[in-house]
Amino acid sequence: MDENEFEFIEDVNVFGEEIQFRKGKSIQLLEYNVENDQIILKKQALDIIEGINEPVAIIAVVGSFRRGKSWFANVLHGRHDGFALGAEVEGCTRGIHMWDTPFLHNGKRVIVLDCEGIDEPQQSQQWATKLFILCLVISSSFIYNINGIVGKADIGKLFLMNELSRYIHPPSNCRFLPRLVVLLRDFMLKAPNDFRTYFLEKLDEVNVEASDAIKERFADFEVYSLSFPGVPKEKLQQMDKVSTSELEQDFIVDVIAAVNGIFNNLQPKYIGASPMSGISFAKFLQECVRSLNDPENRIQISVPDEYESVVEYVAQKSMQHCNKMYQKLMESEILQHQLPVLWKDFSEMHDRAFSEVKTEFFNRVLGSASQICEFQQEFHKMIEKNRLMFHERNSTVLYQHNRDLGMELWKTYVKHGLTFESIFQTQEDFEGAISIFEREMLDNMLEGPEFERVMLEFKSKEYQDAADILQLYGILEQKHAEEMKANQESQTKLLELTAREQELIAKMENLKKEHEEIRINLEMKIKAMDECLIDQQIQNSQIFDDLRDDQNLAMAMLRSEEDEILSLQKQIKELKSNKEYWKKIIAEAVPILLFGIKIFINKYIK
C-alpha cells in the first residue's frame, strides 16, 4: 500500500505493509480527577459509541508507561501517529483515549482504547488499580504491553490476576473476561519454541500466583514478541514520525503478525450470550465507572449487577426507539394511501410496519431468552396501543365516509318521497326506492364493521321515520308498517353481531400473524445466542444446560400467549351461534317483508 495514497485524506504517517489504514483521530474517553478520586466520562466519546448499531469489539492497550503502548494502538489503525506519543519521563496518555472513528471489521465496529500507563511516577496506586480493573472488565481483547524480559519490575499490574475476586464479582452463567494478549516488547533473545510457555515460565519466576491465575482464567491467551525497532535512540522518542522504511524488517514482520493475530481472533464484547452494540456498551461502561466511583464499593465491580442494569436499560431504549419507528412507518403508510382505507389494506400496512419494528427490536434487545420474551410482551402492548390508535383513526373516517354516502343516497332515492310535495304515491314506489337505496349502499359503501353500524342507524331511525310518515299519509298499509317495525329489532341485533364478529375475526387474524412473527424472531434470537456461546468457546456444560432451560421457559411463555387467540375463537363461535338464531327469526319473516328490505337481509342470512 503506497503511503502517498493517503495524502489526500489527511496528513498522516501511514504504516502500510499488510495493515489497513484507518482514518480518524484520538479523543479522550475518560479522565481521572485525583482530588476527589472520580472517573469522568466524556460526552463526545459516549455519543460516538452510542451511535454504533453493529456489535462492538473493544481492544484495550494496557501496560507500563514508556513501553510504546500508544504507538502500538496507532499501528492497529495502520499508522504510526494518532494517539499522542511523548519523550518525557511521565507518560503522555492521561485517562483513556479512543479513536473517534470506530472501524468495521468482520461485521464488528472496533474501538481501540489507548490507556494511561500503569505505575507512572505521579500515578496513585488507587487509580492504577481502578484503571487496570476497568480495562479488564470493559474490553473484549486486553492487550498487555510489557518488557520482553518479564522481570519483577516489568509485570505491572499482572499480579492482580490472582486477586480478581477482590475487585470483580463475576457472573455465574457466562464468560465475561476478555481475550488476553501479551506483547513482549524489545525481545532480543533467541525465540523460544512457544512464547506462551516462555511467558508463563518467566512469570512463574516473579509471581507464581499471577501465572496460575492467568492459566486458569485465560486458557487461550496469546503472546506475541516484538523485536527492537532498529532505530536510533533519538528516533525512539518520536516513533510517530518514524517511517516504516526506517524500521528493521524483523520488527515489521513481528508487528504484522501481532496485529493480524489480534484481528483474526477478535470477538465482540458480550453480555451473556449476546454481543453488545454501541448503546449497550456505553451503558455498561457508565455503570462500571459508577461502581468504581462509589467509595463504598472499594474498587469492586459486580458484573451481574451491571449486566442487569444494561439489559433493562437497553430493553427500555429499544422499546422507545421501535415504538417511535412503528408510529413513523404507519404515518408514512397513511400519508401514502390516505384514509379511509379498507381493513384488508390497513392490515397489510400494519403487517409491514410490525414486521420491520419486531426485527429491529429483537436485533437490539439483550438478556436471557426468558427476559427477552418478557420484554417482547411489554413491547407488544405498546405496539398494540398504537395500532388501536391508528385503527380508531381509520374507523372514524371510514364510518363518516359511509355515513355521508348513506345520507346522500337516502336523500337521492328516498327522502324526496317522504315530503308532502312529492310523497310516494304507492307502497310499490316506496319499495322500489328502498330497493335502489340498498343496492347502492351495498355497491358503494366501504366494507367493514362501520358499514353494519351505518346500516344499523338507518334501520333504527330513517327506516322507522319513513314508515311512520307513509303510514300517516296512508301510503304504507298498517300491516306492512307493523311488520317492518317489528323486524327492526332482529335486523339490528344481526347487524350488531356481524359488526362485532368482523372485529373479533380481524383481531384474531392479526394476533395469529403477529404471534408467528414473534415466534420466528425469538427462535432466530435463540439460535444467534447459541452461536455466540459457541464463538466464546465456553466449555462449562452447566452454562449450556441453564441456557436450554431458560430457552424452554421462553418458548413456554410464548405459547401461553396463544390463550388469547383461543379465547377469541371461543367468542367468535358464540357470536356465530347467536347470529344463526337471529338469522332464523329474520328468515321466517322474509316472505312477508318488503322487496327492498329483503335484498339487504339476504346478504346476512344466506
From TrEMBL:
Q: Which UniProt keywords apply?
A: Coiled coil, GTP-binding, Nucleotide-binding
Q: Name one GO molecular function term.
A: GTPase activity
Q: Does the keyword Nucleotide-binding apply?
A: yes
Which InterPro entries has this protein been placed in?
G_GB1_RHD3_dom (IPR030386), Guanylate-bd_N (IPR015894), P-loop_NTPase (IPR027417)
Q: Could you say which residues form the signal peptide?
A: none
* Protein's UniProt keywords contain Nucleotide-binding: yes
According to the UniProt entry, the coiled-coil residues are 494-528
Name the family.
Belongs to the TRAFAC class dynamin-like GTPase superfamily. GB1/RHD3 GTPase family.
Q: What is this protein called?
A: 9192_t:CDS:1
